[in-house]
Design brief:
Layout: E1 9-13, H1 37-49, E2 54-57, H2 77-85, E3 92-98, H3 104-118, E4 122-127, H4 132-137, H5 146-164, E5 172-175, E6 180-182, E7 192-193, E8 198-199, E9 214-217, H6 222-231, E10 234-237, H7 242-258, E11 267-276, H8 280-292, H9 296-307, H10 334-347, H11 351-359, E12 365-369, H12 371-383, E13 389-392, H13 399-414, H14 427-430
Parallel strand pairs: 1-2, 1-13, 2-3, 3-4, 4-9, 9-10, 10-11, 11-12, 11-13
Antiparallel strand pairs: 5-6, 7-8
Helix pairs in contact: 2-3, 3-5, 5-6, 6-7, 9-11, 12-13
């Protein structure tokens, strides 16, 4: 079978005033934008004008930022995306939610609901939440181990997918003449009994328009890649070099193939923080302007927390300490820890320089240049197989997204790598992925199985 030509995929990662930690200090920035739904609706419409595949919101069930450092606090992304769904028509809507602190039934219901509300545009970024503050918010005295979090995530995904499949596509009959709304033989419990969860089901929402909302995963540790290879439709990843990105993508695709999946069906989207200018020099000056607004003391505390050291162990004008915690001992943000240490060691950066490099994208690649230069580097990664697309992270919002749509997207279109119009209506169609068949179509249905006491379905 001939494979369809590859097409570049673009996701807009939206974050209050932008991804650069000092973006809120720019003269035109609104420091209160993070709770203004109109701000996010307008940006989603901008991304839709640029025919982006999707917009995406990160999330954590804990206050994720030092309130002194940058705008902190965020709206629940599924609530926010419901508001955005009504203000847009085609663009996909991806929200983060944690398997460590949420129950599969809640997750299945919420994302099925968003998929129905949006007409098949929902996606779920599956995270395991490497935050001790989150653990304490949910009655735990310590962060669950890395292995425990990933084992729970795998089981949660099995349950969520089973719940989405607990209704057949044709379960709703709506036969007014016979007075029969639904067929109880086409709605089944899942009867899951596992190590972490016990869930009877069925879901109280009919099967989502996409069958399964798009599944995204963002971990780059071996356990994270195993989870992605088994379940993910798309992977958000942080990579600093083309060589590292190629190695990551090749490894992920090998793991997917080993599980019997088409290795090219998992879309790999590295993060990219594009700083645009009319000239290369102007773009670099804009990046330097943002970096000058960083308050080093705030950033130093954040870096020390990531590295699991005391702030007084870091000196701004020296390189990182020779001895740092072993990567395998790090229970939270393990892959990001490894990326940051590798970056600092490889380029012999001082702590001050490292803080500047992390200020724009927290370990994601920052690239400053003209629209043509940004497009060139994106296409080089895409053509090499290191990326199927990019998680675009504008340093300042909304201006950075508007500039990308107006300047970079036309170049990508001229070079035949990116769509000029949407071909489909669902998020899966944007990503070129099939709609999963329901369980009955896959032969998993138990003939004649009765399902008592399902609300809205005649017994």
């Amino acid at each position: 079978m001939t494979r369809a030509p590859r097409q570049l995929h673009l996701n807009a990662f939206l974050m209050s005033t932008g991804h650069h930690e000092a973006s809120w200090r720019l003269p035109g920035s609104d420091p209160a934008a993070g709770t203004d739904v109109r701000h996010f609706q307008a940006m989603a419409r901008t991304a839709e004008r640029g025919t982006f595949d999707s917009v995406f919101f990160a999330d954590s069930p804990a206050l994720a930022a030092d309130v002194r450092r940058r705008p902190a606090g965020a709206l629940d992304p599924t609530v926010l995306l419901t508001a955005i769904a009504g203000a847009t028509e085609r663009i996909g809507l991806i929200a983060t939610a944690s398997t460590t602190y949420e129950e599969p039934y809640h997750l299945a219901r919420r994302f099925a609901s968003l998929d129905h509300v949006s007409g098949g545009r929902a996606g779920w970024n599956v995270v395991t939440t490497a935050s001790e503050d989150a653990a304490r918010n949910f009655g735990r005295t310590a962060l669950p181990s890395h292995a425990e979090r990933y084992a729970r995530a795998g089981e949660a995904l099995d349950v969520v997918r089973a719940l989405w499949d607990s209704w057949d596509d044709d379960a709703v009959l709506a036969d007014k003449g016979a007075g029969v709304w639904g067929d109880p033989d086409r709605v089944r419990p899942v009867e899951h009994r596992g190590a972490a969860f016990s869930v009877r089901g069925p879901l109280d929402v009919p099967r989502p328009p996409q069958g399964h909302p798009l599944l995204v995963q963002a971990g780059s540790s071996p356990d994270g890649k195993d989870l992605a290879a088994r379940y993910a439709d798309a992977v958000f990843t942080a990579q600093q070099t083309l060589e590292d990105a190629q190695a990551f993508a090749d490894d992920l695709r090998r793991r997917a193939a080993g599980l019997g999946r088409d290795p090219w069906s998992v879309r790999v989207l590295p993060g990219l923080v594009p700083v645009l200018g009319a000239t290369t020099a102007e773009a670099r000056e804009r990046e330097e302007e943002l970096d000058r607004l960083i308050v080093p003391e705030h950033a130093l505390r954040q870096l020390a927390a990531l590295l699991r050291v005391a702030p007084d162990e870091l000196s701004l004008d020296r390189e990182l300490p020779a001895v740092l915690p072993d990567e395998e001992s790090v229970e939270g943000m393990r892959s990001r820890y490894a990326l940051v240490v590798s970056l600092a060691r490889r380029e012999r950066l001082t702590v001050r320089q490292l803080i500047g490099r992390l200020g724009g994208g927290r370990g994601h690649r920052t690239f400053s240049g003209t629209a043509e230069e940004v497009a060139d580097t994106m296409l080089a990664w895409w053509r090499s197989g290191a990326a199927d697309g990019f998680n675009v992270m504008p340093p300042a919002l909304p201006s950075g997204l508007e500039e990308f749509v107006d300047q970079v997207v036309p170049v990508l279109r001229e070079r035949g790598a990116f769509r000029s119009a949407y071909a489909g209506t669902t998020l899966r169609e944007h990503y070129g992925l099939p709609r999963p068949a329901d369980r009955r179509s896959r032969g998993a249905r138990v003939p004649g199985q009765a399902v008592p006491a399902v609300a809205g379905v005649p017994a």
